[in-house]
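Render this sequence as a predicted structure.
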Amino acid sequence: MVWVIGLIVLILLIVSAWFRKVAVSVIIVTGVVGSLIYILNEREEERALSRISLAELDFENVALKPSYSGYKLSGRIKNNSQEFTLKQVNLLIIMQDCTGTPDSQDCVTIGESHENMDLNIPPGQARDFEKSLYFPGGNLKLLGKLEWNYSVSGIKGE
């Protein structure tokens, strides 16, 4: 059935000058409207990434513990923004194998994980989170002590 409609449109494009003008106009209008929607969505995404600053978030009791098939990252995030709901936090978690004394530790990075946590934390509220992490390489064979840290690489608010 679709091929019949396609054939009719093709015949009209060949035979009718009026239909060609209408078809070109529809294509141009569709392209302009699509471009405007794309630009507006990109601007909204940029604004969402700058609505809540890192200073407006409190991370509490963040812990990384071994679990059955990897590691579990858990803790609590408090959204101190007065206006925006926290929708997403992107974290970079780095695991290191540290040898030596606490005064002169030599640490080697043995794993990195970029994690996106989808959240819904209204202004002035806090939520607990838990995220399973998997580091490439399977079982970690440590020469020293396992150390880890995290940093926030992105915040999205609405």
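Summary. The first strand starts at residue 57 and ends at 67. Residues 35 and 83 are 30 Å apart (CA to CA).
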